[in-house]
Amino acid sequence: MKLKKRIIAAVLSAVFILCSVSLPVAAAVANPFTWDGSSALVSGRNYYISDSVTLDGSFTVPEDTSLTVLSGGSITIPRGMTLTQKGNIVIENGASLIISGVLNLDSGSSLCIEGTLSSGSGSVLSAFGKVLLSSTSQTALTGVSSFNFDFACYGKLSLSGTVTINTDALIDGAFTVESGGTVTNTGLLTLGENCKYALYGVFKNSGGGAVTDLRPQYDVSALSVDTMSLYTTDALTGIDVSYAQGEIDWSKVKESGVDFAMIRSSRGRLSDDYPMTSDTYFHQNAKGAMQNDIPIGVYHYCYAETVEQARDEARFVLSLIDGYDISYPVVFDIEDDWFIRNGYSKETLTAMTEAFCDEIKAAGYIPVVYSYASFLYYHLDMSALSQYPVWVANVDVDKPDYDGTYFLWQYSWKGSISGINGDVDMDYSYIDFAAYTKMFGLNNQK
Prior knowledge:
There is one protein chain. This protein is of the alpha/beta class. The strands form 4 sheets. It has a 10-stranded parallel β-sheet with strand order 1-2-5-8-11-14-17-20-23-26, covered by helices on one side. Helix 7 (307-321) runs parallel beside helix 9. It is elongated. It contains 11 helices and 35 strands. Residues 1-30 have low confidence and may be disordered. The two termini are 15 Å apart.
């Protein structure tokens, strides 16, 4: 994916404007009023809160009114209550804003957090005004939140709810998508040089959303799920093929509009009579796709019985693909019922998967774990494998029955593509791996 560049001057100017709001109250407030959370706010006044206030109704901060919560104070919006902000709100360092109900930031408003901002389950934060989370801020959002205008964060930002970013945004602090959190970016998000990003939930770009990553980059970081998540895009359509499809007319496949192809490279050892081998159509398919400018990745079907055999399978795959232009991942396909019937433990299967992926990663290729959703849930420890991207198989559903992060989805086994006789597996990729591997010099792409 070609990254969209953005100019952050507009965000920074908004930051300066917001910071000007947060002056010491004694100097900046000409007509201070204490607000108790139970009476209407009057237009044109500057209010402050120095203790703990819980709203006993729904209120509006008028357009030309400011509300400052002083250090040691707090304001709570309880469940069932709404605070509509048309003016300016400042939460000073040492103060708190707690949202259990609804906070609406109208166009033209501003919210500056120097202290703590938190939202609970069932809460709603809808921001059409400017939002600044300063370097001293600590923000934890658990409910539903959307940011639709200038948004900048220099402090700690933890997201475990459902969050959409529909605007130009800058994050230059600690940014964590927690387990259970889903962040959808449809705007232009910049991660600053000081941003510390960690992914335990789901981050995705959608509807033209893109990320400019200004953090120091290293090839090893580009192989992490965290970094890959920043380069997601709307679904690209692909196929996965093997000997089962027989002869393929790759020029017709290209004309059909397929964006990529995952090609079976090999399978593991079945017995002394059936040693590890390449797919009988691998070389033909790889050359045919490459000659028609279709980006390819490969997948290996696992029959390993030990960790060391899994490593051997990885080394075999690497020997097969040497010299080929592999711009999509190298995949460990672990799904066979044989493992279940023979009582293989989750620990052993996880160790085998890790061994294969470690070998692929050490060679500078992107390793991916493929299986069907229930196998991932019940037979692999996905928390131990969280550093590896996932390709999930779950057909004939609107979305996979898998809550973890995945970058590829096999959504059908009965696709119809010109140039292929019979059914073919259909896939979505949420990363343009051809662009990604070239950008970071992975998979021997330059």
